[in-house]
Amino acid sequence: MRDQTVLASAVASQVEEHARWGGVVPEIASRRHVEALPQLIEQVCHESGVALAELDGIAATAAPGLVGALLVASVTGRTLARLHAKPFVAVHHLEGHLCSVQLGEPLPPGPYLVLLVSGGHTELLRVDGPGRYQRLGRSHDDAAGEAFDKVARLLGLGYPGGPAIEAAGRDGDPRRFALPKGRVSRPEGGYYPYDFSFSGLKTAMLRQVRALEAARDSVPDTAAEPLPLADLAASFEQVVAEVLVERSCRCAREQGLGTLVLVGGVAANRRLRALLEARCQRDGLAWRVAPLAYCTDNAAMIGVAAAQRLAGGQTSCLDLGVAARLPLEQADRLYEQQPCF
Ligand code: KG4
Ligand code: ZN
Q1: What superfamily would CATH give domain 15-97+296-335?
Q2: Which atom of ligand 1 is nearest to 297's Cα?
Q3: What is the structure's pLDDT at 220?
Q4: Is 169 near ligand 1, meaning CB less than 6 Å away?
Q5: What backbone phi and psi angles, to 5 degrees, belong to 128?
Q6: Ligand 1 near 296 CB (within 6 A)
Q7: Neighbours of ion ligand 2 (CB under 5 A)
Q8: Is the pLDDT of residue 58 over 80?
């Protein structure tokens, strides 16, 4: 495969608009995609100096995600592919995240373990090569990013929660509040060693905030005192980072996987990146972390995944639609002759 160099990358952020509602509003997201896409395509062609007619292929995310937003990109991609007689490559969103790490350094040959942490997913994946994935761990309730977003709302820090909590907790004491590292019980006894649960942590944060408010209100003349937001944010970040890194390292060691890879929106968190590095070093594991600029959703990572599929001779049918759900283990279905949806 040719070198992977990003010639141009543009992201049309809708964060400000969604922030007003405290989260992504699907209808608004689709409408903004329709408005932004033509101009974004023009912009990256201009910046890269590459015309559509010169491309090797055209890619779009097909699953999983918000169907309206996926449709806008997929219809645009398939239309351009037909017009310019180019192969169309549908991409699984999580495969895009997995490939984001290659925008920094090349990956060692598989197998390796990936910790994928985003707003919708928290997964530990064994990767043996493109399309060869096995899920070894997951969250049983909220995704890690979702927990950041909900706790940020609880603390009044705004949306998206991850960057807001990171900024608030920068100078905070990460050991001030003891918070639980949620475990998931097995019906037959014991715990799932590589799984996660963030709902108890969310409740613990709520209780902590209520207790601090009650203590403040019980003392006359302290009602206007602010909560210790920096310590609350830092303690939350710390426990999330610890639970993610501890279970990932354990999984890598026990499964005989020598490299741990961190990707997804939450991988932008500096506390998490630093802890992963330190623990991998201690445990004798190699590690790779997606470049900061390509942790949260972006088209460059989708391009890398598509280039890899294209190099392997895989393209998608122009009649392929989109799907809200599709397990990563079934990503190969996007390249079947008969469209799977
Ligand atoms: O991968 P992504 O951009 O979108 C999904 O596929 O979900 O991830 C977005 C998630 C949000 O929940 C956001 O709060 C979180 O990633 N996030 C962070 C940081 N930046 C984004 N979480 C922790 N620390 C950050 N610096
Ligand atoms: Zn994502």
Answers
A1: ATPase, nucleotide binding domain (3.30.420.40)
A2: 3
A3: 81
A4: no
A5: -105, -5
A6: yes
A7: 118, 297
A8: yes
Quote the CA–CA distance of 256 and 309 in Å, as a whole number.
27
pLDDT digits (tens, 9 = 90+) for 73-104: 999 999 999 999 999 999 999 999 999 999 99
* C-alpha 290 to ligand 1 mean position (Å): 13
- Residues of each domain in the chain carrying CATH 3.30.420.40: 15-97+296-335, 107-289
Beta bridge partners of 260: 113, 287
- What pLDDT band is residue 2 in, cutting at 50, 70 and 90? low
Q: How does pLDDT run across 276-308, given as a tens digit for each residue?
A: 999 999 999 999 999 999 999 999 999 999 999
Average pLDDT estimate for 45-62: 98
Query: Which ligand is closest in space to the CA of residue 272?
Result: 1
Q: Contact 234/241 with Cβ under 8 angstroms?
A: no
Using a 6 Å cutoff on CB, does residue 100 contact ligand 1? no
- Give Cα 185 distance to the centre of its chain: 25
Domain 107-289 has CATH 3.30.420.40: yes
Q: Name the one residue in this structure whose structure tokens are 């996007």.
A: 334
Distance from the alpha carbon of residue 268 to the mean position of ligand 1, in angstroms: 7
Distance between Cα 46 and ligand 1 center (Å): 29
The DSSP-derived string for 293-339 is GGTSS-HHHHHHHHHHHHHTT--B-TT----S---GGGGGGGG-SS-
- Ligand 1 in reach of 237 Cβ (< 6 A): no
pLDDT at 117: 98
pTM of the model: 0.96
Best probe residue, ligand 1, of 118, 273, 276 (max atoms within 8 Å of C-beta): 118
